[in-house]
Amino acid sequence: MIDFAASVKLLVYIFPADSVTQEKLGRIEIAKQALNFSAAHFTIFSRTDREDLHGHNFQVECELTSPIDANGLIFDYSVIKRVVKALCDELDEKTILPEKSPYLQLERDGPYIIGVYADERIPFLPRDVITLPISNASVEELCHYLLERMLAHPDIKAEDIREMTVKVSSSPGQNGSASWFKHDSETNS
Q1: pTM of the model
Q2: What is the mean pLDDT of each run of 10 residues along the chain (189 residues)?
Q3: Are the C-beta atoms of 116 and 101 separated by less than 8 Å?
């Protein structure tokens, strides 16, 4: 038995009618326990200060706003759950290294990926690492990375999503979020 009340919240906002149309928009929040990944990282604070390598059980949530159709649904939002789960699976059980850090350079040295930070050379096996186009392995950067990946996914691009927010939590009560709003000039491709 699936406990939908614990996994998905549905809030309905009805925006005032204008002279042209009355459109009912809905906002759903998807926060399922299965949308998570375990990963190692270290946050870099400056050219001389960084955290020790450690790990978190990251939790990912997604909120989105879209028109409610004649059937009373925004769309089949299971597509959102599938995409978020696939992105979490890519990051699961990896060490996350930033490709765009001003303080960390990544090099190949034989069978290793080396993180060069200040006077340290930190070796990693390639199978244990994922490098991402971010400047730091922080919740602030991870939520933007996941939001961009979601918005680029063809199944999500096909929907009439007006707003989307992705939250990444590294522990209860500690999260970052990134939001996107559709501008009037944007159309679905």
Answers
A1: 0.85
A2: 44 48 86 95 96 97 93 89 97 98 96 96 97 97 98 95 96 93 68
A3: no
Would strands 120-124 and 112-117 be described as parallel, antiparallel, or unpaired?
antiparallel
**8 Å CB contact between 132 and 99:** yes
- What the chain holds in terms of domains, given with CATH numbers, is 4-41+55-93+137-181 (3.30.479.10)
Closest CA to 141 of 42, 32, 55, 47: 42
- Residue listed under structure tokens 């303080």: 103
* H or E element that contains 62: strand 54-67
- The 3-state DSSP class for residue 88 equals helix
Cα four-point dihedral sign 105, 146, 129, 93: positive
- Residue pointed to by tokens 């960390």: 104
Burial environment of residue 103 by CB neighbours within 10 A (0 to 12, 13 to 18, 19 or more): middle
